[in-house]
Amino acid sequence: MSLIKWEPLNEIENLFGRAWNWPTNRSQSLLGVGDWNPRVDISETDGTYLIKADIPGVAKDAIKVTMDNGMLTIQGERKQEKEEENKRFHRIERFYGNFTRSFSLPDDADPSAIKATAQQGQLIVTIPRKASAAGSSAIQVPVE
User: Fold this and answer.
1) 76, 83, 64, 63: which is closest to 36 by C-alpha?
2) For residue range 110-139, what is the model confidence (pLDDT) as tens digits?
3) CATH of span 37-81+92-132
4) Where in the chain are the domains?
């Protein structure tokens, strides 16, 4: 008999996962085939917003990036490998199927100059900021 470490938060996560099919950071086992989201990093500089998404195994032609009414949407599909007849799986942890991620962009984002590149399992979306907003200065607001 082997000992299993008890983690009290797992029970709460499992409860929410079963009730609303929420993915958790601690355990991705609640997600099924066709039900995954790539992890993203969102950052900004003085002149651009940058979104980096991890999409290993997703072909460039299976990715679609759209901008509509201030909402940037990344869609794609990672296809599952064909199963061999005599192959026995011992563990499957990678997710397959369609994904969609949407992000609301700030008003100073320039939708006409968005660029997206996919290489080495990563999608990089660069959104330039409009010149008028990039030159604005910060002001001190007194607290009363």
Assistant:
1) 76
2) 888 899 999 889 999 999 998 764 445 555
3) 2.60.40.790
4) 7-32, 37-81+92-132
